[in-house]
Design goal:
Oligomer: homooctamer
Radius of gyration of chain A: 17 Å
Number of strands of chain A: 9
Shape of chain A: globular
Structural class of chain A: alpha/beta
Distance between the termini of chain A: 45 Å
Largest interface: A-B, 38 and 38 residues
Order of helices and strands of chain A: HEHEHEEEHEHHEHEHEH
Helix content of chain A: 25-40%
Strand content of chain A: 15-25%
Number of helices of chain A: 9
Bound molecules: adenosine monophosphate, magnesium ion
Largest sheet of chain A: 5 strands, parallel
């Protein structure tokens, strides 16, 4: 009664609906996950606590929990070549939650993912050292908390879209990620677009769409 | 002395540097515009008042002023086929400034542009009536003020990235576009990414990068 | 000593006073509930934790706890025909707390209630599928978190007042419901009025007043 | 090209579309007004400056400008009995703009309107003196700036819905009406619902819908 | 080492220094309390948790804990006639913490205190019923959360200063008392002054100074 | 029609109603001023522009305009001894508008006023130099913009109530006086109470009430 | 009467008092400037409009107006060798007002100043190109608007203090410099300290103190 | 994989990289700490909970935990004379966490540290009593919560830079330190620069750089 799964989203948008587990009970999440699994598609639940993950895995044993990403995935589609290339960059070790949410999402949706972590702007040589790996990507996801300066710097180095993910890493005047969010919205690099604080999932969803276009063009 | 034009940005990123005219004097803007024009590339100045535009056109007579978009352009590149397809959607007549800034930018950067204006969510049939035109686009830019609900609805209808531009249209609790910005950042459609309030330019810059990938794939 | 129950509110306003349990101790809430029960009217306590509910039910065994709605009700008035028709709509499964608070309140106050849940704007066909049920209502309550776009869309589809309830569902830039609140206040549908974040109770209280007028007119 | 008038809104919602003149040019507003006038319905343009009003009256000489309300109206429907009764209350002389926008709107839409002005809570006897007139209304619109306390007090006196309009009257920590808005959203009177700052129009639109129901019941 | 008690504050200001226990450890608070007790004056510690209170009472057995007020007091001064009259008014049962902090403070500082609780503006007759008791006070402290309207109404009824204490009672758009605070700062009653959210202590400290002046005049 | 003067406020509260001229037209203000003048009391209009002042003086030639205070006064009461002593302190030359509004108001209401200007905390010796004059006052009004630190320092030096007036003096992160307002609300001197930004009038109104009590006691 | 110049500040702090011209009249500013000039020290007035500057120059013909910096200076001290070295860096041409205010202030106070302008992070090679000039400075002032990322990057490149000046350059979600301010406060480079938005003056005042120490050490 | 230690920061900036422990697991922190210890430098981890500290000390037994400062340090450099003099001042006992974080950091980095605690502005004589000790410092760190007034007062007394650390001490309208932060940014003492809320570490890092310059000059 309480849930209407949007089964035909895949038809409209090319990617399946995804479960937002936060604010749902373990039982509710497991039930929705199982119904979507029964439909035969790949399934993703985001922002899943360990307790929710356990309930899902009890209901759908083939599912996998990614604790750093707080995500549960179920891979049911056939293996195929990676469609496009997404780089996931983050500023510091504390941004791993958002970065891994992005990486796990993009991998489930068939993108090739390169992780470039702990390359914050206070030690610029670390970013310059991975410049060639950046140049390979069709789209770059950049996760950063505190002042959120990294997307602007990356945006100036690459010729592809940069999707900026502000993270809630920081304290005091970071206001739980609001400082990073504002910084990214005001980026002076014009190829920077922004998603919600800690929304690695949304960044990867859109990045996958873009990478796929880039990939298909190469064929 | 005061300005260092980033001439090799086009090499790094595939698109030229662009002049942000607001907060510059007419003389400063005209001088920078002329120097970039002399370099032989296409030139774009955004957020240009009528007064600034006059100074630019006096210095570079081949430039064109687009008053609704507050933009000055100079086309110097050879004509070529449009590279990819960008739809520019807006919610109401009052959002035209941002929408036209986006459209003029995308056209200068060789994208094909379809304008779909005044299709706000309070009269949904207007949006549903242009659904086929939407389906054609490689990427959709959606400009909306007030509650900023339109990108979520568009995002659910299409299978391509949606770049949301909150506009400063509204009054009171719109807080000069902050309400629309927050709404778009919290979109439940996961293919929605966001740029700054009234930043039609940045939306179009990124959209052009995406559309170009999509276009090349079709060839 | 500490509490002055407003017993003659029912005379002034047609509906009884209601207990706001949050910030009261279990003992205080149970005592007030019992005094109102003794007065012979219907009684409602909102925002009641499980612990408070237990104390109330110990004092007034005929009371009923609605855990999803966090409400305790006591029905003492005679059964009569439903007076008017309230539709309660919500965007996602996570908005159920506010929606159920509204539904339970409206039912206690003699309205007929239709629940239309999980019809968020990212999958518009779900809302269009319940359009006829919406058309039947005298007033519509719409609960939504995140971007809070649903009331604007519903407002454009119906010819009756829409009472929008922003919910605290979301994270990051949802700012605990502030984003949804601002969106709803700026709705471009002019038949949308707004109550506090998560205030399903207030929405239902006012909706009941409106529905009753509509009902009586039909007789 | 730039405007799609929602002509069938009246069919869907019972009341015609309304022109939001702010942010439109005089020419645009006059053109839209004239097209709607040609359709034979009543027409309303809100937030119209004197300059816009002149352009509209030049195009449609039968239109009327209400300067205190900043509204232009055109009455084309046949005269009929007033449908329901709306009281418009305001706290101080400075709140007249919002109050008159509400009153003019409600009158155009066939409601009977009673104006009760300058009855702020700092001199309570003024409000108590008009208590009987309040008791007659089917719905009450209350406009107040500064601390926005008036709707709570009115809400406790009447048994009908109160639509609260925060106004931008005040200075300093009124933050252009935000203080009044927040106060009204937190009203401890549960029959208070809220619209945007200075949105007398939206309050009257919804009030008219409610009053019409009440009116028809009386017949 | 870490604390310099301001022992000569009483000389400068007529009232002793007071311990702000929040953010201090139990040991620190007890030590400071004991040192001040040893100086022979009355002692007050505010915002003391139960745990802190226990440590203080262990060190100074003559001290008294007031749990609803979260205050620990030690009375060492000689009994004397009450100096002036402070009324403490609150809007609802949930505001008791701030109200009792005020009442306990004023009593320790020799004022006569009248408690007038649960007289919120949604049921105005309750306030009007205690009007005579209000008229007796030399100064009135008004504690209210949610919309914070009560001080404006009280301010219009009395001819003495009103000290408004916004409380953190409420949810959603009350923003932990910010809505009430803003309302009170914008009061249209010009005899209303304001202190920090939940600062019953500061209100009573100043009220006591005022009441003492009024009292001495009567002699 | 539009204005109900609260003539019996003086009976209730001991001080007459005051006209808030901002947001009123010159004609409206002059008319209200004249009606109150005709009643024979002292009259005060605050926040009056030069244009409004001219209209008032045309209607009531005995009125006086105080441009630095933006106030118009009319003295009609008999001369009598000053009732109590108010010190008005300000931090810098730019705070004079608020300080003079306070001083003019207090003088009209029969208080003795001592002005102590430009004694900001960055040069503490200036404040210490006027310490004796401070010690004489029954109540102190302190106006300060920027960081708003002065009331805390003054509060620690005197044994009477301090009414803090945050001013809109400053730029950037002063946010039009919000920084000073917040600082004053968090004062660690417990005898500091606060009014709205730039509200010298309200501070003086309350200060006059307090000073009068202090004065009468001395007799 | 209205102004107490802090003449002995130079004794206490080593640098003279400075006039904050904003919010003062031309006459007031000129009078204070002349009195300080008469005392024989160097004089600086900041945030001076052209109109104010004219009044000052009329009173003190030896003074100089710096329009880009909005500053008036009077040099009366003997020439001496520059004491320490301050680099002033800015992100874009639009940040010149703050940067020049800093440069003019530091030069008046005897520092050697190197200007490094338009080196924003979106084109990193421009900053890397001036790295050697940066390495020479004893302290670096960095002015940047929009996302305010530049101080973090500079902070990671140098081994001296960086004083960050957020500027009000930008639009929309820059919120008049608040975004840049928050970014700088959250800098992950630990040698970054921050001053108010557009406060080039304060940055230079402190930088001069630091540079002087560094300079003297070299001797 | 997840962490790239910036080992050559000491070369670039003269001070080693520091571990930000918050948001890292105990295992991650201990591992990074051990790797840095192995490099032979001094090591500092800030914002370390007791649990994290235990893990670090288990891995590196020579490390020391400072619970009040929430810091873990490892001293490996040779002892040498203190380089420069830093005073650490705080307003109240509750500000000790930030003050001790600053003091421990400065001591590890070879500065001489003088602690001057509990000298808030409400009892000014306490600050004036330590004036001579203040005069000795090369740079002053001032930690204060609530209204954050102390840095302005200190700034007016000394001729060296003041680094202001707003603390999260307070409640209600302190908004977790935002009030103190805003106050400090608007300081009317021009030698005040600011760091993030509770960022004693950053203040000490920069202070050490400054003190070292001052120290070397004295040699
Ligand atoms: N982490 C996330 N952040 C934002 N949106 C999400 C997230 N995970 C899932 N969603 C979206 O939330 C919607 C599902 O919401 P619900 O019906 O409440 O489960 C889907 O449309 C998803 O695209
Ligand atoms: N003063 C107003 N405040 C809010 N909404 C309004 C106002 N006036 C008209 N509207 C709404 O704005 C929409 C028209 O917007 P537009 O297409 O930009 O003219 C209509 O749906 C009206 O209901
Ligand atoms: N509840 C309270 N709210 C605000 N200030 C307080 C409170 N309790 C004590 N104070 C003040 O805090 C100061 C003591 O702070 P501390 O030195 O940290 O103990 C004293 O000057 C008191 O006046
Ligand atoms: N400068 C002021 N700031 C705040 N309130 C004021 C001011 N001047 C007058 N008032 C109050 O505003 C009320 C008059 O408002 P109105 O009816 O709009 O003229 C009176 O109760 C005055 O006490
Ligand atoms: Mg790192
Ligand atoms: Mg339209
Ligand atoms: Mg769903
Ligand atoms: Mg009035
Ligand atoms: Mg109650
Ligand atoms: Mg001064
Ligand atoms: Mg540039
Ligand atoms: Mg203390």
């Amino acid at each position: 009664g309480h849930t209407r799964i949007d089964h035909h989203r895949a038809l409209r948008t090319g990617l399946p609906e995804v479960i937002y587990a936060q604010g749902k009970s373990s039982a509710q999440t497991a039930e929705i996950f199982a119904r979507m699994a029964a439909a035969g598609t790949d399934v993703l639940a985001t922002r899943a606590s360990e307790e929710i993950a356990e309930a899902v895995l009890a209901a759908v044993p083939a599912a996998v929990y990614h604790p750093q990403a707080r995500a549960v995935t179920l891979k049911q589609s056939a293996d195929k070549a990676r469609e496009g290339h997404v780089a996931v960059v983050c500023a510091g070790t504390s941004d791993l939650t958002a970065a891994e949410e992005a990486a796990v999402t993009a991998e489930l949706f068939h993108a090739q993912v390169t992780r470039l972590y702990d390359v914050g702007v206070a030690g610029l040589h670390r970013l310059l050292a991975v410049r060639e790996q950046l140049a390979d990507a069709d789209v770059v996801i950049v996760c950063a908390g505190m002042e959120g300066a990294l997307p602007s710097v990356v945006g100036g180095l690459v010729g592809v879209p940069v999707i900026a993910v502000p993270t809630s890493v920081g304290y005091g005047a970071s206001f739980d990620g609001a400082a990073a969010l504002l910084g990214m919205l005001n980026s002076c690099s014009p190829n920077v677009v922004v998603v919600n604080i800690d929304n690695g999932f949304g960044a990867a969803y859109t990045a996958t769409m873009i990478a796929r276009m880039a990939h298909r063009k190469r064929e």
